Amino acid sequence: MRDDVPASPAPERCRRLQALLVDWFDAGQRGLPWRRTSDPYRIWLSEVMLQQTQVERVIDYYERFLLQFPTIEALAAASLDDVLKLWEGLGYYSRARNLLAAARIICERHGGRFPSDSEAARALPGVGEYTSGAVLSIAYGVPLPALDANAVRVFARLFGVKGDPARGETRRRLREIARATVPDDRPGDFNQAVMELGATVCIAGRPDCLVCPVVETCAARAAGLETEIPPRRRSSTSAVTEVAAVARDGDCVLLMQRPHDSYWPGLWVFPSADFDGPNPGEAVEALLHQAGLEAEAGHTLLELSYGIMDRRVELTVLCTEVGGEPTAERWRWVALAEIEDLAMPSPHRTIAQALPGG
DNA sequence: AACCCGTGGCA
DNA sequence: TTGCCAAGGGT
């Protein structure tokens, strides 16, 4: 055996794990909307929404999305603006753009049906190793692993894999474990059982080993390392100050659409910018001048703080008198009644709801 | 490989 | 309050 090929767990141990976890899943799985369907489209949609997003946050978005787009064909015919509006508040908005692009590809090249072939699925935008394995195992019974953050934690603890899962060698070991443990029989239920265990019992903080169906087989528990595996991620946040302008012209307000190569791609925001000086009014006026507008900053409408990625933002929102038409692309005067139809990120939706008459 | 991409709940 | 975390993918 070559050194760079991780050892597989023993077949007998894999079978034991499969039986215990699937029985546990059968006995007590949560009733979730995407578990009441076998439609590959619906399972795909749920997996995309669940990327880096907890189950409880997804449920309402999932059901609203399917009311508007019940089939892949309906989704493929939609506009990006409509899809983004349904995604508003869920985060990671490139998922919505990729979902729409993939739906159009599926209609053009796959007869409107999510492909059951792994390579074809992986070729779709927004469908990576995890999502392809999850959809194919759950919707089509293909014995592929679905190694999400839950499964990484569960396998690392069960098999005593101590390294940082972000590192290549540890990741290869965990992928080999996931590949070896997924059964030919009911692979989708096994994958969901592993993830369900990680989400409800074998959680990141303090795992509830007393109710774990596989605690007898757990290497981390046997060594007293269940809270040390996997190692904590380190993170740092930076503090940032921003200004935003609420520029009114009668029943209209000035908005700008975010570019696709940064955060909040394609979403609408009040004109805003970082600033680090003592005078937020000057910063707002400079921002609007760059867009070809005359501007005079007025009073503070509200101040709010929000987090985005690793940034902690203190945002000052200024009412601003504006003259002229914006020359910059992506800037628009929008009627107050139309704002609710545009997709806005959470902090800017908060601003919109604070507008008098808005 | 390492970094970018959201949001809100929780301790 | 601050940091951690979540059914990842693209580059």
Describe this structure in words.
Helix 2 (40-49) packs antiparallel against helix 8 (129-140). Strand 5 (294-308) and strand 6 form a beta hairpin. The mean pLDDT is 94. The chain is built from 15 helices and 7 strands. Strands 1, 2, 3, 4, 5, 6 and 7 form a 7-stranded mixed beta sheet that branches. The protein is elongated and about 75 Å long. The chain folds into 2 domains: 11-222, Endonuclease III, domain 1, CATH 1.10.340; 238-354, Alpha-Beta Complex (Nucleoside Triphosphate Pyrophosphohydrolase), CATH 3.90.79.10. It is 43% helix and 16% strand. It is an alpha+beta fold and 358 residues long. The chain has helices spanning 11-28, 40-49, 55-68, 72-76, 80-87, 94-109, 118-122, 129-140, 149-158, 168-181, 187-200, 219-222, 280-290, 336-339, 346-354, and strands at 238-249, 252-257, 268-269, 272-274, 294-308, 311-323, 331-335. The chain binds a DNA duplex (11 and 11 nucleotides) through residues 46-58, 89-95, 98, 125-131, 134, 146, 148-151, 166-168, 191-192, 195-196, 198-199, 203-205, 232-233, 235-237, 262-265, 306-309, 312, 345-346.
* Termini gap: 67 Å
The CATH homologous superfamily of the largest domain:
Hypothetical protein, domain 2
What percent strand?
15-25%
Query: Nearest-angstrom radius of gyration?
Result: 24 Å
Looking at the overall shape, the CATH architecture of the largest domain is Orthogonal Bundle
Stretches with pLDDT under 50, minimum 5 residues: none
The tally of structural domains comes to: 2
Q: Order of SSEs, N→C?
A: HHHHHHHHHHHHEEEEHEEEHH
**Per CATH, what is the topology of the largest domain?**
Endonuclease III, domain 1
Shape: elongated
Class from helix and strand fractions:
alpha+beta
Sheet of most strands: 7 strands, mixed
| Helical amount | 40-55%
**How many β-strand runs?**
7
Q: Work out the helix count.
A: 15
What would CATH call the class of the largest domain?
Answer: Mainly Alpha
Overall pLDDT metric: 94
